[in-house]
Amino acid sequence: QNIIDRDPEFVLALGDLSYDSSSKCWFDIISPIANKTMISIGNHDTDPTMLKEYMEFFGLKGQYYSFNYQNVHFIVMSTELPYEDGSEQYNFVNNDLSKVSLNPNIDWIVVDYHSLAYTSPANIGKGNSAEKELRDIYHPLFMKFNVDLVLQAHNHNYQRTYPIIYNSNNSETPIITDTNNNNYHDPKGMIFGTVGTGGESLYTLTGQAPYVATQYVGFGFLNVDVINDGTTLSGKFFANDGTIKDQFTITKSVNVSKNN
Question: Pick from 55, 18, 4: which is nearest to 198 by CA?
Answer without folding.
Answer: 18
